[in-house]
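User: Need the bound-state model for cytidine-5'-diphosphate:
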Amino acid sequence: MQQTFILFKPDCVQRRLMGKVMSRFEDKGLNFVAMKMLQITPELAQQHYAEHVEKSWYPTLEQFITGGPVVAAVLEGLDAIRVVREMLGATSGLQASAGTIRGDFSASRQMNLVHGSDGPEAAAREIALYFTAAELCAHEPTITPWLRAADE
Ligand code: CDP
Ligand code: MG
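Assistant: Bound-state model below.
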């Protein structure tokens, strides 16, 4: 079982797409184990996107990500990190395949609706950046026996 961090970006909140996107993750069988709405500060944006702070486009990314409330969440499931990244699609909504979240709902390289951790180290770092251990509500959904075989 693996946990991954996702962030419904300000465009997703403003465009009222959170419900649709959440449904996709729930329909897939992924389990929400933490969620909160918050306003990202420039300091938090710089920590979250530490690998991009020096990029020429970082200032506009910071302006975007701090420009309205976001919803941070943790999803749990088998291979959750890879599965969520594949559900999101390529970074740019113009490149992302149809059927992916970005491919279906975004026509932008920046306003691509949802962030997802890109590996186990990033997932651990990002979960710790937004949530305390006590805020993770891991639980076994009663429907689990109908989502996959016991030995999967
Ligand atoms: O989110 P993902 O891992 O797919 O992409 P990234 O290359 O790690 O970039 C992080 C975020 O920066 C993207 O999701 C975009 O919102 C934004 N970005 C941007 O504003 N301009 C770019 N040229 C590339 C990315
Ligand atoms: Mg990335």
